[in-house]
Specification:
Helix 1 runs parallel beside helix 2. The protein contains 7 helices and 11 strands. The longest helix is centred in the middle third of the chain and has 17 residues. The strands form 2 sheets. Strands 4-3-2-1-10-11 form a 6-stranded mixed sheet, covered by helices on one side. A 5-stranded mixed sheet has the order 5-6-7-9-8, covered by helices on one side. The protein is an alpha/beta fold.
């Protein structure tokens, strides 16, 4: 069986990152190295730091990344793209032009006989009312129409990129808070509650938090948070028997 890969949170194009072109090239090299081995690649959100699609316009840049995705799908590799809180405005371009399978909601799917629950992870178990309000605004069809039609695309992109940059730089060192423990980590608490009514799910995999976490919740239920492709360069692999996480180090990783 060909392995299945999981990655998330590259935040390509982030104005908060000095090495964004190098970062994109590194991600593309990773995809190039797995293209002949992978059955599927699941991208669990926030692959772009800001993304918006107009009717005839998409954001400038990302040529190497988009071209590599298209190459994979042309070869028959399934590429599943989950929208996160930075790229929720992906509509049909990635499906039409790059051949991805786009997901706007969490997905429960059977992969080689095991049941996986896959999601970006934003808004899951997080009690922050401010974040919930912003998330609701960003998902609003009315607000999306206003953003697309009342602002020139250049101004809209500048606003979005500036917002995303501010969001990252307001954190210490631009990083997410470290793991808070089972009793405080929102995604862990959400998963523990969800699994009470879904005992058949074997694996839960998320992005969003930018931390590496591999946690056994019961003797059969396991949860992962995938880290990021900003500083950790982490990915998970499922080969039908083992699920493991690695850091991508060029020339050393066991892809």
């Amino acid at each position: 069986m060909k392995p299945i890969y999981f990655i998330s949170d590259a935040h390509l194009g982030s104005w908060a990152l000095e090495h964004r072109r190098t970062q994109e090239r590194r991600l593309v090299r990773f995809l190039d190295e797995i293209k002949n081995k992978a059955a599927a690649v699941y991208m669990l959100g926030d692959m772009f730091d800001f993304w918006y699609e107009w009717k005839y316009v998409v954001p400038k840049g990302y040529t190497r990344f988009l071209g590599k995705i298209a190459e994979l799908t042309d070869m028959g590799v399934e590429v599943h793209y989950f929208t996160g809180n930075h790229d929720i405005w992906a509509f049909d371009y990635l499906e039409r032009e790059c051949g991805v399978i786009l997901h706007h909601e969490p997905l429960t799917t059977d992969l080689y006989g095991s049941l996986f629950y896959l999601a970006h992870g934003d808004g899951m178990g997080d009690p922050d009312k401010g974040f919930k309000l912003i998330r609701k605004v960003f998902h609003s069809k009315v607000c999306q129409w206003m953003f697309a039609n009342l602002l020139h695309s250049d101004w809209a992109m500048k606003f979005g990129q500036t917002w995303a940059k501010h969001s990252r730089l307001k954190r210490p060192d631009g990083k997410e808070p470290p793991y808070m423990g089972e009793d405080k980590e929102h995604l862990v608490l959400y998963t523990k509650e969800y699994m009470q009514s879904h005992p058949d799910i074997d694996f839960y995999i998320y992005g969003h938090r930018h931390i590496e976490l591999d946690l056994m919740l019961t003797h059969k239920t396991r949860m992962m948070i995938l880290g990021d492709w900003i500083s950790e360069f982490t990915y998970a692999v499922w080969d039908g028997e083992k699920l493991f996480m690695e850091n991508y180090i060029e020339g050393e990783s066991q892809l």
